[in-house]
Amino acid sequence: MTRRALVLGGGGITGIAWETGFLAGLAESGLDLTAGGPTPPDLVVGTSAGSIVGSQVTSEVPVAELYRRQLLPPAQLGDGGVPLAAIGPRVLLTFAASLLRARGDVERFGRLLGERAVAAARAGRVPSVEERYAQVRQRLVTQAWPGEGAPQLVVTGVDAATGRRVAFSGPGGELPGVGLEDAVNASCAVPCVYPPIPIAGRTYLDGGVHSGSNADLAAGCDVVLALCPADRAVGPLRSASQALAGLGVPHLVVTPDDASRAAIGRNVLDPQARPPSARAGFEQGVAWAERVGDLWRGGPPPT
C-alpha cells in the first residue's frame, strides 16, 4: 500500500484561501485529495493556516463548498468587523531578535518567542483568547477530529515554556485529551499578533515557530505533496523542501506562483485579499493538476 501525505503550511488568512483554492482546482481537474475524494491522503499535516485547511479537508464537507466559502466577502465569513491584524515591523523585529539570541537552537527560539508572546498578551496588545476563538470558529467547518476511515490529521503547535514542538492528533495522538478547536487555535497563535493558547495547564504558540510546514512529520509516507504559501528556511527553521529532501521520498513542494503572490499581497492577514487569493490558488491548482496527479498516483517523481 502506498501511504500518501498532504502537508499544509502556514500563511495567514490568504494562505487558507490559496491552499483551499489549489485543492479545489485539483478537484476540478479530476484529482480530489480531500476525505471525500477517490484518492484521499492517509496523513494530513497542518501548521497554522494549514491546520484550518487540514481540519476542513478531512471533514465531510465537499471541497467545492470549502472553496465557495473562501470567495465570500469578509462580512459574510464573520471577520468583516474584526480589527485588521498584520505581522508588522514590531513583530518582525521581535522574531529577528529571538532568532539571533537562539543561536541556531529552534527550541530556544520557541522559548524566547513564548516569553514575548505571553508578555504581549498580559499587556493587552493582542486580542483576548475568547475573541480569538470566536474568529477561528468562523473558519472551522467542524470541531471534531476526523473519524474512522478518514485521513489522520496532525496539527502542530509549540509549547511556549519549553519551545518544544507538539503534534496534536486527536484521541490516538500525543495529547489525546485536546480537542480539535483547541489544537487549531494553538497552531494559529502567531506570537505577538494573536494570544498564546492555554490548554490543560500548558500554553501553546503557532506551529510555525518550529517550522512553516513541519513536513518532517510525513516521515514514513511514500509520497508527499506540500502546499506552502511561504517555504522559507530561516535560522534553525527548516523549509519543506529541506525536510522532504531529507526524507528521500518522492514529493512536490508547491508555492504561490506570480499571479498568486500578487493576489495575496503584502498582508497575509487581510481578509479582503482572501477571495482573490482563493481564485489564484484555483487557477494554479488546475495548472499543476497533471504534475500532482503523476506524483499522487505513483508515477515517476517529478524532476
Automatic annotation (TrEMBL):
PROSITE patterns per record: PNPLA
Hydrolase as UniProt keyword: yes
Give the PNPLA domain ranges: 6-220
Kindly state the positions of the motif DGA/G in this protein.
Answer: 206-208
Gene3D superfamilies linked? Cytosolic phospholipase A2 catalytic domain
Q: Which UniProt keywords apply?
A: Hydrolase, Lipid degradation, Lipid metabolism
Task: Please provide an example of a Pfam family that matches this protein in its UniProt record.
Answer: Patatin
Short sequence motif GXGXXG: positions: 10-15
Q: Which residues form the active site?
A: 48 (nucleophile), 206 (proton acceptor)
**Residue numbers covered by motif GXSXG:** 46-50
PANTHER family xrefs: BLR7027 PROTEIN (PTHR14226:SF57), NEUROPATHY TARGET ESTERASE/SWISS CHEESE D.MELANOGASTER (PTHR14226)
- Annotated protein name in UniProt: Patatin-like phospholipase family protein
Organism whose genome encodes this protein:
Nocardioides nanhaiensis
